[in-house]
Design brief:
By secondary structure, this protein is an alpha/beta fold. It has seven helices and six strands. The chain has helices spanning about 35-45, 50-55, 75-90, 105-115, 135-140, 150-175, 180-190; strands at about 5, 25-30, 60, 90-95, 120-125, 150. It has a six-stranded parallel beta sheet. Helix 5 links the parallel strand 5 (about 120-125) and strand 6. Helix 1 (about 35-45) packs across helix 6 (about 150-175) and helix 6 packs across helix 7 (about 180-190).
């Protein structure tokens, strides 16, 4: 069980998150039960972080567990608006493409996220059975996204490093540091294969 704070449509209905209130948005196909990749990813991330680190992080899971065929057009529009606002308020986003269907809405959201060109970090993972994997990887390459993860283990590793870097940057520079500083710190931390106990005299700007 993860100790990360998770915001969902159930525990924050109708809420509009403030900018950078969420550290990560989990975008991708909706799945439940044994196929719930979001739960599996959060579990994997939790296994890579300490309890204290987990408690200082916030993730948005847009899964609406109340969703069924009875939802009206208004309900659908409200869900989409909630997701869009939460994604916009997140420092970074995961886009995971499962092997179940083409997931055009996830593709659309990814394109919009990259098109914003605001420097926020993006993590993309593609299951081996995803039907549009070749096209997706080619499009991502043209957009400058070179790291496309082939599964949840690799994705959990990358996100855990991001979270460690984020916590370090918050302590060192404050909560409103630029994405460039964050990306630089994350790259250095991964290169040195260490955690946030780095040389605090080193510059990351």
């Amino acid at each position: 069980m993860t100790l990360i704070n998770v915001i969902t449509p159930q525990n924050a209905p109708g809420a509009r998150l403030k900018a950078e209130e969420s550290d990560l948005f989990l975008a991708g196909g909706i799945a439940t039960g044994a196929d719930d990749w979001r739960a599996a990813l959060l579990q994997g991330i939790g296994e890579r972080l300490s309890p204290d680190e987990q408690r200082r992080l916030t993730v948005v899971d847009p899964t609406n567990t109340a969703w069924d065929a009875s939802f009206s057009d208004t309900d659908v529009k409200e869900q989409i608006a909630w997701e869009a606002a939460a994604l916009d308020a997140s420092r970074a986003a995961v886009f995971h493409f499962t092997s179940r269907g083409d997931q055009p809405l996830t593709m659309f959201e990814l394109g919009a996220f990259l098109g914003a060109r605001d420097g926020r970090l993006v993590f993309v993972s593609v299951d081996s059975g995803y039907s549009r994997a070749v096209e997706l990887r080619a499009e991502l390459a043209t957009a400058g996204v070179r790291d496309v993860h082939g599964g949840l283990d690799s994705l959990a590793d990358a996100v855990a490093w991001y979270f460690r870097a984020l916590l370090f940057v918050r302590e060192r520079f404050g909560s409103h540091s630029s994405p460039l500083v964050l990306a630089n710190v994350m790259a250095k931390m991964r290169k040195k294969s260490c955690n946030a106990s780095m040389n605090t005299n080193e510059r990351f700007e």
